[in-house]
Amino acid sequence: MGNTTLLKAVRANQIKDKLIIPDAEQPVISLLERTMPAQKIISGKQVVFIRFRMLLRIVRIIFRHYRNISESIRMLRHLVGFRRKALGENRVKKYAYVGGKYYFGLYTPGFYSAAFTNFILGEVNRMFPSGKTANRYTNVLISITKKCALRCEHCSEWETLNGEEKLSLNDIKSIVSRFQELGTAQFHFSGGEPLLRINDLLEVLASVNKTTECWVLTSGHNLTRQNAARLKFAGLTGVVVSIDHFDADHHNRFRGSPESFKWAQKAVRNAIEADLVVAISICVTKSFVSTANLFSYAEMAKQMGVSFIQIFEPKAVGHYLGKDVELTSEHYQILEDFFVTMNQAKAYREYPLVLYHGYYQRRIGCFSSGNRHVYVDSDGNILNCPFCRKKAGNAITGNIELISEQLKSAGCSIFKPLRF
Ligand code: SF4
């Protein structure tokens, strides 16, 4: 199928998805949504309206499960309270609207979707165990290859990069299916560079059932126009493209390739064109963190038309092992101010939403380490996350649930454990 035909097929499929109304969770699309472009940041009254609909939907989801309206409202209050603890009083004031769904984070499935419903039930079940089946994981990150064309300064996979491939296609499918049996809201596929294994990735995506969202974390290498359309067609929700500076030369030096910035730029364009949700991700080094640099980066992100900016702090693992890369409290303050301003201030309503994990991790603890997330490396080992590399067992040969519980009780080595 040619590029244009494929893209047309992708779009036709989306329209079909919306109009067929496959289950009661699928809304009839409103006039407002029909007239909106494919990828857009919404704010103001639109957000108030969508938030209200979301709250109603959440109460309905909980009520269907617990069959008690006052209990459902009590549970909703707990969910809202939990979110407030994580974000302080910084209520989300904008959403990304892509492909007919609303997104307020990269780790929460789009609203409305079957994945969103199961995500909510999983969260409620953690606070009020019902004895019924609910999602065990909100997010599982799986490294599907060791291959990569880049040599990034911060690479956490440095020791195994471009080594012998251990996971077969069947291994990856089996890992995915075992996590889905336990309930997983999202899979994020990484590497190495996962798009160097595009054909296997497409098969894996086809094997994932639609109660789980799938994302790809990429340097942008090999995210051609055609591959973006094929990924969308196979059911991919979004991509996170790494861009570590607004200046091409800085980024290319950081990534160890003169082509890298160009690849990333093209990847973003192709993914937006294919109606994928698009985030750009940055590892904020000591030399980068300044108010001026952060806002220049935001300006670039807005011009690119992406929905999210994700901020990662450097950790002394992999290629950074033994190096003094940890940020200081002054850096944290600059990042937090940027995070709050970008998501709250009226002047930035049309800019991408910003995700900064350090903000909530320092307030309520770590969502990873077997709590809601785990990381499966390219050998199939289950780890806390790509930065805390404690191995507790293997996702192909071990008992995933038991291994996750072991990680959870040991907790994160940097942040306090989450209560729920
Ligand atoms: S960080 Fe990612 S893109 Fe960079 S070398 Fe490592 S695996 Fe490749």
Structure description:
With 420 residues, the chain is an alpha/beta fold. It has two domains: 25-115, no CATH class; 132-410, Aldolase class I (TIM Barrel), CATH 3.20.20. It has helices spanning 3-20, 31-34, 45-66, 69-87, 114-127, 169-182, 198-207, 225-233, 248-255, 260-273, 291-304, 329-344, 357-364, 400-410, and strands at residues 39-43, 94-98, 101-103, 137-143, 184-190, 213-218, 238-242, 277-283, 308-312, 353-356, 373-376, 381-383, 391-394. Strands 10-9-8-7-6-5-4-11-12-13 form a ten-stranded mixed sheet. Strands 1-2-3 form a three-stranded antiparallel sheet, covered by helices on one side. The structure holds iron/sulfur cluster. The site of iron/sulfur cluster (SF4) has 11 residues, from loops.
Name the descriptors.
420 residues, alpha/beta, TIM Barrel, 2 domains, ten-stranded mixed beta sheet, three-stranded antiparallel beta sheet, 14 helices, binds iron/sulfur cluster
Can you count the helices? Answer: 14
Averaged pLDDT: 87
Strand order of the largest sheet: 10-9-8-7-6-5-4-11-12-13
What structural class is derived from the secondary structure elements?
A: alpha/beta
As a percent range, the share of strand residues is 15-25%
Spans of at least 5 consecutive residues whose pLDDT stays below 50 are 10-37
What is the fourth-level CATH superfamily of the largest domain? Aldolase class I
Précis, in short:
The protein has 420 residues and is an alpha/beta fold. It has helices at residues 3-20, 31-34, 45-66, 69-87, 114-127, 169-182, 198-207, 225-233, 248-255, 260-273, 291-304, 329-344, 357-364, 400-410, and strands at 39-43, 94-98, 101-103, 137-143, 184-190, 213-218, 238-242, 277-283, 308-312, 353-356, 373-376, 381-383, 391-394.
